[in-house]
Amino acid sequence: MAVVECIRQWFRSLVIHQLTIANPLMADNWMDRSALHVAAFEGRLVLLHNLLAYGADVDTVTLDNVSALHEACLSGHYECAKLLLENGADPDRVTLDGGTPLFYACSSGNAACVQLILERGSSPHADRHLASPIHEAAKKNHQECLQLLLSWGAQVDLELPLVGTPLYCACMSQAADCAEVLLQAGADVRLGCGQDSPLHAAVRGGAAQIVALLLDFGADECCRNEDGQTPLDLSAENSAVRSALQRRGICSLSQLCRVSVRRSVGANHLPQISSLLLPRRLQDYLLYQ
Q1: Beta strand residue intervals within the chain, DSSP E
Q2: With 9 labelled, which of 65, 122, 166, 287 sits at a CA distance of 20 to 30 A?
Q3: In sequence order, what are the residues at sequence separation of 6 or more whose Cβ sits closer than 8 angstroms to the Cβ of residue 99?
Q4: Rounded distance, CA 219 to CA 212, Å?
Q5: 57 and 102 housed in the same domain
């Protein structure tokens, strides 16, 4: 037994010395990262299992309060994240930068990790302004992660200071897929970041596809930001976004009615439109189907 214990101690020391390497995405000081952190980040499941079996603290953290679960979620290693949670890892631990495991799972775009963390009771809502899961998913154009968050009740129009709404983030990053998901889910096309609308952001980024999408969902091409500029003022001459804005023309009565009905119903009740006693064609029109 003494020999076995000596071997275990030797193995543990060897692993810790060999695996203390830097992860510039997660910690300012890599020297305080444990072997558990590195194994989780690199997806080394067998090693992670052995370290936990040899008594490694599943919730050991760095100086930045980064845990191994944060690392696994950031790198998108589902099996490692699952193993850590099964061994009691805290799914709601917050780093000094305000990031939760859910936030980092959304950043990596691993929908399985997002689902796993949500099933463990983690809230889809952000407690800190710079680490909102739904904003991160929208910004990175991770459509499946975004849809999961919305299905778990994330606020579609959550506006954060200096960050804006998820739709604004998607437009800023030219994330067309996520912009469409948010609009379909009832995101208010008028809400951006202060007076700067999603349409301003899309025009500024030169995203003609998103500009056309926003206009179709009722965006106002005449709205002005805090500098008094309209989206057209921000568009470059002979650009695709300017052409999209100029092609808009006068909004049809049917389109005005659709936008008005959707706003009256509200994002939370949009799915109920399909159960109303309306012709199927009209239901599809209201739901942009």
Answers
A1: none
A2: 65
A3: 70, 131
A4: 9
A5: yes
Coil, strand or helix at 229: coil
Distance CA 188, CA 196 (A): 13
Last residue of a domain, one of 98, 130, 154: 154
In a domain, 16, yes or no: no
Q: Which residue has the tokens 């543990």?
A: 12
Is residue 150 domain-shared with residue 161, that is, in the same domain? no
Give me the torsion for CA of 195, 198, 203, 205, rounded to 10°.
110
Instruction: Please report, for the domain that includes residue 222, its CATH number.
Output: 1.25.40.20
- What's the pLDDT tens digit per position in 240-264? 988 888 887 777 888 888 888 888 8
Q: What range defines the domain where residue 199 resides?
A: 156-249
Compute the distance between CA of residue 150 and CA of residue 130 in angstroms, rounded to an integer.
19
- Alpha carbon 227 to its chain's center: 29
Query: Are residue 242 and residue 255 in the same domain, yes or no?
Result: no
What is the value of pTM for the model shown?
Answer: 0.85
For 95, half-sphere exposure in the C-beta direction (CA atoms, 13 angstrom radius) is: 24
Confidence check: pLDDT of 105 > 50: yes
Paired tokens of 92 = 């709601």
pLDDT in tens, 176-226: 999 999 999 999 999 999 999 999 999 999 999 999 999 999 999 989 999
Tokens 């960050």 -> residue: 163
pLDDT digit string, tens, across residues 153-174: 999 999 998 899 999 999 999 9
15 in any annotated domain: no
Alpha carbons 179 and 210: distance in angstroms, whole number: 7
